[in-house]
Design brief:
By secondary structure, this protein is an alpha+beta fold. The protein has four domains: 182 residues, D-amino Acid Aminotransferase, Chain A, domain 1; 110 residues, Beta Barrel (OB fold (Dihydrolipoamide Acetyltransferase, E2P)); 105 residues, Alpha-Beta Complex (DNA primase, PRIM domain); 175 residues, DNA primase, PRIM domain, CATH 3.90.920.10. The chain is 21% helix and 27% strand. The strands form nine sheets. Strands 3, 4, 5, 6, 7 and 8 form a six-stranded mixed β-sheet that branches. It starts with 8 loop residues before the first strand and ends with a helix. The relative contact order is 0.09. It binds three DNA strands through strand 22 and strand 23.
DNA sequence: ACAGCCT
DNA sequence: AGGCTGTCAGGCACT
DNA sequence: AGTGCC
């Protein structure tokens, strides 16, 4: 029986997929649970492998209603409201409850249910490489009736189930590919389609009501410096939160309305200084840009009010530059005419993403990506027929390309090369339309082409798990910390990770490279079990991390941050916080479908790469000292 | 996407 | 005229 | 000089 197991995850999708290979389930709003049964003994692990069966003693009966000696079941632990709808708010107080008395009382008064949807292991058989439809069949066969144990039914009609879920006030759907294997990662074989959304809003006032304290809160968000009214939230409070909110609202009373316009705001609203931020769950936005069915979840003190804006979640509120329908769309971007062609061509056959999807991705992230391409010569890597068909490199720009593209002629070993640049949105989208899936800029900019503006630390796995890359990256961070430098980590979108150490463009490529080389040799000598350095692939030891410092040279390139990659799953090279660099991180968690939402939330985590160049004069002696021991 | 060569 | 084909990088460590 | 790798 496999030991620790990471549960399979679903990727976000905007609408249910169609086709006979998909089945649909209700998305239960509770906590994920992997139920292990060994000789009638039950243990439950959470998504992050924390044991949590102590929280739910009422589930101890489950082994008696599952006809198996040894099994691992996957499902969701839920608390149901009066209508039988699972509500996260109802189970939340139980998740971290430590007090045995409270646990027992809640187990008695409002028992949780286990909605089981998958069977990973059964009596000697590892079912992870068995297709989903077979696993479900086996699961159904071993379940015996019990009120707390429920099979999560599957349905064939996605659109209909989604509508029914909407009517019932459910959170959303999960779509699963019938033939999918059970993988311990987020996959596009499983998709989640959400009906409810969450974001922060500024509290700008309250409306007195029948009950004590207040009836509802007036919510807003900033747009271009103005506070825009988003509707009122009147539910989600209890006696305590009403009272506590009242005490923080009262001292903030003001007489002047903080909203820019008075449109459709209820009369009698009492204004408060727009300083408090509330987390709100809601079903969707109405046509006139108000919240439908908002629910108050809590106050947030980690976000300044002025930063609260309306979040457009891609796929859910599709803001599509190139809508579906026509295979070819003439457009004007930034005053330049571009004919977008072959939009329905499949670029990612395993995932169904088309050239249109890729263009829409880049249109959405252009503002984030462009600073990392600006003023840098590009090596075009063109995939005219998608990721599984041949690609070719192109450095020289044909004379026939539009004159508004910036180009520069640079000397080269052979004849001079006229490099192209992506200086703006139009240039970027023009290049994507040529079949450039990833974008590969130089590490130096016009004006100082011989001096890189960051040291690239490139960690590549030699047939090892991503957790080793994570371990290696954290060791790199340790060394950087020790010599007083800041590094910025990102996934490559492939198997490895990049760490960028921004520097002033005063050091030659050779100097920057030797800096990376010294770090690599230092780490390799300290952890020969983790790193391998030989250039020749066949000499690199397996199950190691290859620290590649050779890619740091003039005219060499790597895929930029925010670049999509030409691999199955349509992954994106994604900047990370160091807190995210920990076991369980996997590059497949970030793809062209879910990244725009992440970027809207996380902002530009690579900002410091351009904004905070560092000097090496002090760091180099420190590094030499470390090497000498 | 385009040029140049082929039929 | 129309269709097919070739082209669209390059440096460097290592052998 | 040839080749594999990025």
């Amino acid at each position: 029986m496999p030991g620790f197991l990471t549960p399979m995850g679903a990727s976000l999708a905007g609408h249910p997929p169609s086709g006979p290979e998909w089945v649909f389930e209700v998305k239960w709003d509770g906590v994920r649970g992997l139920v292990y049964i060994e000789d009638k003994q039950l243990t439950i692990y959470s998504r992050t492998n924390n044991r949590c069966d102590r929280q739910y003693p009422e589930l101890q009966v489950l082994p008696h209603f599952i006809a198996a000696r040894n099994a691992i079941l996957d499902g969701e632990i839920v608390a149901l409201d009066a209508h039988g709808v699972s509500k996260f708010e109802l189970i939340q107080p139980r998740i971290h409850q430590q007090d045995a008395n409270s646990i027992a009382k809640m187990a008695q008064k409002s028992p949780v249910h286990f909605y089981v949807f998958d069977l990973v292991y059964l009596d000697g058989y590892d079912l992870r490489r068995v297709e989903l439809s077979e696993r479900k069949r086996a699961l159904k066969a071993i379940l015996k009736p019990h009120p707390l144990l429920r099979f999560s039914d599957d349905f064939a009609a996605g659109a209909e189930l989604l509508e029914a879920a909407r009517q019932a006030g459910l959170e959303g759907l999960i779509a699963k590919c019938k033939s999918s294997f059970y993988e311990s990662r987020r996959s596009r074989q499983w998709l989640k389609i959400k009906l409810t959304h969450q974001q922060e809003f500024v509290i700008a006032g309250y409306l007195p009501g029948e009950r004590d304290y207040f009836g509802s809160l007036a919510l807003g968000y900033y747009e271009g410096g103005s506070l825009i009214y988003a509707g009122n939230v009147g539910t989600g409070f209890n006696e305590r939160t009403l009272r506590e909110l009242w005490h923080v609202l009262e001292p903030r009373r003001i007489s002047k309305m903080p909203f820019a316009k008075a449109d459709k705001i209820p009369k009698g609203t009492v204004w408060v200084k727009p300083e408090l931020v509330a987390q709100i769950k809601f079903q969707n936005w109405t046509e006139d840009r108000k919240l439908r069915a908002p629910v108050f979840l809590g106050l947030r003190d980690d976000k300044p009010a002025i930063e609260v804006e309306r979040e457009e979640s891609p796929g859910v509120v599709p803001s599509q530059l190139l809508p579906a329908g026509k295979n070819e769309i003439p457009a004007t971007i930034g005053g330049h005419p571009i004919k977008f062609t072959n939009l329905d061509k499949i670029y990612y056959p395993e995932d169904g993403f088309t050239k249109r999807d890729l263009l829409n991705y880049y249109a959405g992230v252009a503002d984030l990506l462009l600073p990392y391409l600006k003023d840098r010569p590009l090596s075009l890597k063109r995939y005219p027929n998608g990721i599984h068909e041949p690609f070719f490199f192109q450095k020289n720009t044909p004379e026939t390309y539009p004159a508004w593209l910036r180009t520069e002629v640079l000397p080269s070993d052979g004849r001079p090369i006229r490099y192209v640049f992506a200086q703006d949105r139009a240039s970027l989208l023009y290049l994507v339309n040529l079949g450039c899936i990833d974008h590969n800029p130089w590490m130096s900019r016009i004006g100082s082409l011989e001096c890189p503006d960051y040291i690239l630390i490139d960690l590549d796995p030699q047939q090892c798990e991503f957790d080793k890359i994570v371990e290696a990256a954290l060791l790199v961070k340790e060394k950087l910390d020790a010599i007083g430098l800041t590094g910025y980590p990102k996934t490559t979108g492939g198997d490895g990770m990049h760490i960028f150490v921004p520097i002033e463009p005063r050091y030659t490529y050779a100097q920057a490279r030797s800096f990376a080389e010294v770090i690599s040799r230092l780490l390799a000598s300290e952890r020969p079990d983790l790193f391998t350095t030989p250039r020749a692939v066949e000499k690199r030891e397996k199950n190691r991390v290859y620290f590649d410092y050779l890619q740091l040279a003039e005219s060499k390139t790597i895929s930029s941050a925010y670049s999509a990659r030409a691999y199955d799953g349509a992954p994106v090279s994604t900047p990370l916080t160091w807190e995210e660099v920990r076991p369980g991180l996997h590059p497949s968690q970030f793809d062209i479908a879910n990244c725009p939402e992440r970027f809207a939330r996380a902002g530009d985590l690579f900002e410091g790469v351009l904004r905070k160049p560092q000097k090496l004069e002090k760091a180099f002696p420190k590094l030499e000292k470390l090497v000498r021991g």
